[in-house]
Alpha/beta hydrolase family protein
Amino acid sequence: MKPATRFFRSVGIASTVLLAATSASAHDGGKKPEKTTRHMTGSLEVCDFGSFFVGGVAKLTQYANSPTPATPTTPWQEVIIGQMYVQFMIPENQRGWPVIMVHGGGYSGSGVESTPDGHEGWFAYSVRNGNATYVVDQAGRGRSGFDRSMIHERIATNNLAGFPSLGTTSSSGIWTAWFGHLINGTDITTGTLIKHGEAGDPQCAADPAHCKFNPAHNFNEIDPDIQARVGAIGPPPNPANAKALALEHYKWAVPNTNSTLPGSVCTECSPNQNLAGDVTWSGQDLAKLVIKLGGAIIATHSQAGPIGHHAVRYLKAAGQLDSLKGLVTIDGVGTTLAQSGTSAADYKKIPYMALIPYYPGLATATYQANIDAINAAGGKADLVSLSNPIYKDRFKGVTHMMMMGQGHLDVFDVIQKWIGKNVPGSSKKVACARPNSRGDVDDDGDHHDHRDHRH
């Protein structure tokens, strides 16, 4: 029995004992356990699990911990900014190249851990399919942290012009972006939130086919306290919106604190691009991660679409273009190859897929043009739309947030099948890396690193 297997089986035994004790305690108190079903579709055989950071730079600042104006005697301190948090899980039955999952705007890597209604997420399901899987929080977001000193300094110096917007998508903003509309009012206090396909949907006249069903999302997974406005702050919304505003889904949203990171100028881009902090840092961190792993596939979602293409640019600059074994853009924000400082020829040996939801995609025409250019240059690129008649009604109603909605595992199956068909080496079996030491004080320092799990 391998050490990793022993560990996880031991954890399973301990968890069973703890669960039994917890259940007994709850029973004694006259309460039932809140959850009676598990998220996972079955057990996983995992040989390695953990987390680490990649990238980042040192910044010396007098505003590390306070917005108080600095004086000549204020000490300089160092903070690390621009690093990317990476959580990984490697299966016993690993095959092919590692898959790196990159979330979109207003979310973090938690979006692929579980669905809001408590089902197995893409992270575990990818591992179940034999992929060594690496889930990141974009630089400046979530567990990657952000540059607090930038905010402190702006406040201390009263330099609020261009103060970074930390805006994420609000609850009602998520609803109107992906699930439906606000009608008969100016905001959620006066108007009414309706689903796509419900009476009053303003798109039905122009697109009647998409008004014969509702989005493929569990709208019954709500927080009853939020629906009842327990402890709510601010004016009350239209009572008709109470349930729509109480979705568990909204709790997955996080601020776009990557806006605290410095941007950059891309002179290789055509035309030259002033890049925001998210593209600047997450793009180069992804490239470093691909190199660190000895090769990998990147799968980006939404706002991370351009980040994936800029990672190609960074890999090219490092002479490591061959390390990227495939790129999947999942309903990405549009960027042309030229705008990301790449060319169709760069993708000649990088299989490329753009996945579009059942509803219209964010930038389908842009990605179709990229795909046409890559194929014309001798590469392999496909645009896969979940509304394609070949799928019949299998993906009807699948939204932009497809990894968190109903049918999410079926969607991942489409990605997995494409990888298996188009990425060379995707079926090759890979042995687990040797086990690490416990890290005791007398450890000899022979630590396992995360490079090339294919050995």
Notes: The radius of gyration is 24 Å. The first strand starts at residue 46 and ends at 54.
